[in-house]
Design goal:
The complex is a heterodimer of chains A (470) and B (268). Chain A has 470 residues and is α+β, with helices and mostly antiparallel strands. Chain A is 30% helix and 22% strand. Chain A is built from 14 helices and 23 strands. In chain A, β18 and β19 form a beta hairpin. The longest helix of chain A is centred in the first third of the chain and has 25 residues, at 75-99. Chain A is globular and about 65 Å long. The model of chain A is unreliable at 53-58 (pLDDT under 50). Chain B is of the alpha+beta class. Chain B folds into two domains: 2-81 and 245-265, Immunoglobulin-like, CATH 2.60.40.2250; 84-241, C8orf32 fold. Helix content of chain B is 18%, strand content 43%. Chain B has five helices and twelve strands. Chain B has helices at 112-119, 126-140, 154-160, 165-178, 239-242; strands at residues 2-24, 34-43, 46-53, 59-82, 142-143, 162-163, 183-190, 202-210, 214-218, 230-236, 245-250, 255-265. In chain B, β5 (142-143), α3 and β6 form a beta-alpha-beta unit. In chain B, α1 packs across α4 (165-178), α2 (126-140) crosses α4 (165-178) and α3 packs across α4. Chain B is globular. The model of chain B has no long low-confidence stretch (mean pLDDT 94). The chains are: A alpha+beta (470), B alpha+beta (268).
């Protein structure tokens, strides 16, 4: 029987960071808790924060469940995480600049050439290009799990357009509104400056040809996209325009947006659409979402695109296993945060191990995301395991496997009261002229008892995440 | 050899379009085999956009044409002094390593026939393997215009046994990649004298990376390596990527195209 690290209770003792939450829980009998929960739900519904779930049918505007019990880190726990995350973000960006340039890490034999250059996410269209400030991934979402008092593992990196930061901000907003006393009793580091830091980060990577205060926009695929709420939310908080492809056009050396006062030049595009769709001239000719000619403007220094096209090659799940190597190669440092040990089914030896231990492992698709196309061995039926065995054998290169981690739990409000549920953490590291991280991140919680899958697309919920200032 | 190029591409839209964006690889490569004496590209009604040198050393120049417009003419004129380097690409500055040129595209995805071609040269030294592949491709695909079209894949051309220079180049680079040799598609111009009129002056061939030599051009269509009759413009993983002109128009007008390319020489 696996034991899980409980972030609040060490036996009967309450761990330090949660010390002041005991009274708070005691002050909430079931009826008050239910009333508060109803209040939270009504608030979320009113502001319109919903999350469409791919492939599950049902209500596309389903509310993402919000759990009121906060998740708490001490200042020193966070300090280590922060150093580790920033280190990772630096290494990932160094890797991206390198593999679109001379490929020193490949030449040095530290990562296989085919993993980089034959990767679907490698964009030849940007080879030879160094984006402003040498940054490809401006928002690095690092998914972290905890297995012990000092044990943290990085599950995966998200270098393209990690979503969910609106939930981080809204969860905090909600908690402050409903429980103002908690924020007087605990010294909790603020996070509400995130939009301002994001805007500053984006402005700091304005292109070479920009000689004025840069105009930043968010490019969205449109309101049918599951993260549209977040796109408009961030645009509002940053005070920038939210645009679709059809609102932008290229003329001469620059990109312009159509406005009621005529065309306005755009300098930085925070795009929330995939590489393949951003420019039909360069990528998919059938894309209706993009801007024809955008890539040529980008490559000639007329506009910046965040994240930079091609950034995805750094967060591929097979490339992930080499991130510690990147830290050593580019920074000459030892990784502060651990990777989860990973078997690559593309290797014959690893494949043998994976197939003999499917019942204990988590198997993921190399390019999968959102908790789809994965097998959690210990939580699966024999039939599910056999189904996966066939999938892996048909295309081993498409799968990696990891041990089932004993994810930490935090107290969570459930129907019967309070019970431990598994959590992870996604901080959002901002990389521009500087590297910045607001304290905390998005804590996702697996609300089903015993479940280890925290993805919001798989029934996970969110919590407010606190970093104590002392 | 002094080559004189006059290349005119005319686009006509049956209904006016709202605007056109083009991306050109129409500038001769900076390399030892060719020295540009003069070179101009013009786009009727066009605004010159940004330009840059990509990871393979190609010069890319973009253009936009504001609508409504029904006719656009792209005119390339220039004179280039060419030198024989035995087909070896020398002096081109490209930071990205050859391993980046091993990946497939939709046009070069290998099938059994492509793999068989690659297998036919297995065990040979890279340089002789590359020469042998070029010959094998020429034998496998006989030259005939009209049999294939722009989207024909390497596998389809091999199955058909007929095609043009684009198909030869695709089959060559697809097979070379299967054999583990980095390979790419090259577009450019070819001077053909009057005895040999079968190939158009707009031409394409392949380049294969040979350790110790670097990139070497192979032209299965003419069973040779590029010499002083060739002008190199740019390269890509396939014909679509290496296209001298890529364009997108906004609007519903149907596009029709006419191209005339003349490459002449002037003996010195």
């Amino acid at each position: 029987m696996t034991t899980y690290f409980n972030e609040m209770y060490d036996g009967d003792t309450v761990r330090g960071p949660y010390a002041r939450l005991g009274d708070w829980t005691a002050s909430m009998p079931a009826d008050k808790r239910l009333a508060k929960q109803a209040e939270a739900e009504a608030l979320f519904r009113r502001i319109g924060i919903t999350f469409a779930v791919y492939g599950e049918g049902g209500d596309p505007d389903r509310l993402i469940p919000f759990d009121m019990f906060p998740r708490v880190f001490t200042n020193s726990e966070w300090a280590k995480l922060e150093r580790g995350i920033k280190q990772r973000a630096r290494a990932l960006n160094a890797f991206l600049v390198d593999v679109y340039g001379r490929g020193e890490i490949v030449r040095a034999g530290r990562i296989p050439a085919n993993l980089v250059y034959q990767n679907e996410a490698y964009e030849r269209a940007v080879s030879g290009f160094v984006p402003p400030k040498g940054v490809y991934s401006h928002i690095v979402g690092v998914d972290i799990v905890r297995t012990g008092p000092t044990d943290f593992y990085v599950l995966e990196d998200n270098c393209r357009t990690p979503s969910g930061v609106s939930y981080m901000l809204e969860s905090r907003e909600m908690m402050m509104r409903m429980f103002p006393a908690l924020f007087r009793e605990n010294r909790i580091a603020p996070i509400d400056h995130y939009p301002e830091v994001l805007r500053r980060t984006l402005a700091s990577v304005a292109p070479a040809k920009c000689d004025r205060d840069p105009t930043v926009v968010i490019l969205t695929p449109g309101h049918f996209n599951s993260a549209y709420y977040e796109h408009s939310f961030l645009a509002d908080l940053m005070g920038v325009e939210l645009v679709e492809g059809a609102d932008l056009f290229v003329e001469g050396e620059f990109v312009y947006m159509r406005t009621t006062e005529g065309p306005k030049r755009v300098d930085v595009i925070y795009r929330r659409i995939d590489d393949a769709f951003i420019d039909p001239l360069c990528f998919r000719p059938d894309s209706m979402l993009g801007v024809p000619g955008l890539m040529d403007v980008y490559r000639s220094g007329g506009v910046s695109i965040c994240s930079a096209p091609g950034a995805g090659v750094a967060d591929d799940k097979a490339v992930y296993t080499y991130v510690p190597e990147m830290v050593r190669f580019y920074l000459g440092e030892e990784p502060i945060l651990n990777n989860v040990p990973t078997w690559k089914c593309a290797n014959a030896d690893d494949l043998g191990h994976v197939l003999s231990n499917l019942g204990e492992l988590v198997v993921k698709e190399v390019h999968g995301s959102g908790g789809y196309g994965m097998l959690v061995g210990p939580k699966s039926t024999k039939a599910q395991i056999e189904e996966f065995r066939a999938l892996i054998l048909a295309d081993p290169g498409n799968y990696i496997a990891q041990p089932t981690l004993a994810l930490s739990t935090t107290p969570t409000f459930v129907e019967e009261g309070i019970a431990p549920r598994h959590v992870d953490l996604r901080p959002y590291c901002l990389v521009g002229e500087r590297i910045e991280l607001v304290p905390g991140g998005l804590t996702r919680v697996a609300l089903r008892e015993g479940s280890l899958v925290v993805n919001s697309s798989q029934g996970g919920g969110v919590k407010d995440t606190w970093v104590l200032a002392e | 050899m002094l080559l004189i190029v006059d290349h005119v591409t005319e686009y006509h839209y049956d209904r006016p379009v709202r605007g056109v964006v083009q991306s050109h690889r129409l500038t001769p490569t900076r390399c030892e085999a060719q020295k540009v004496l003069d070179w101009t590209v013009s786009v009727s009604g066009g605004v010159q956009g940004g330009s840059f040198r990509d990871g393979a050393g190609d010069w890319v120049q973009s253009w936009t044409v504001a609508g409504p417009v029904t006719d656009i003419t792209v005119h390339v004129q220039g004179r280039v002094q060419t030198f024989d380097t035995a087909g070896i690409l020398k002096g081109n500055r490209e930071p990205v390593p050859p391993e980046a040129w091993l990946r497939d595209t939709a046009l070069t995805t290998p099938d059994e026939a492509v793999r068989a071609l690659a297998a036919s040269v297995a065990g040979q030294e890279p340089l002789s393997a590359a020469h042998a592949l070029s010959v094998a491709v020429a034998e496998a695909i006989s030259y005939r215009t009209g049999a294939t079209y722009a989207q024909t894949t390497a596998a389809e051309a091999l199955a058909l046994g007929e095609g043009v220079c684009q198909d030869h180049a695709h089959a060559l680079i697809a097979a070379a990649r299967v054999a583990g040799m980095p390979a790419r598609y090259v577009s450019g111009y070819l001077f053909t004298d009057q005895d040999e009129i079968r190939h158009e002056a707009a031409h394409a061939w392949g380049e294969i990376f040979i350790p110790g030599f670097g990139w070497i051009g192979f032209d299965p269509a003419n069973r040779c390596c590029p010499d002083t009759r060739y002008i190199r413009l740019g390269c890509g993983l396939d014909a679509a990527e290496a296209a001298p002109i890529r364009g997108v128009s906004r609007g519903s007008g149907e596009e029709s195209l006419s191209v005339t390319v003349a490459v002449q020489t002037q003996e010195q």
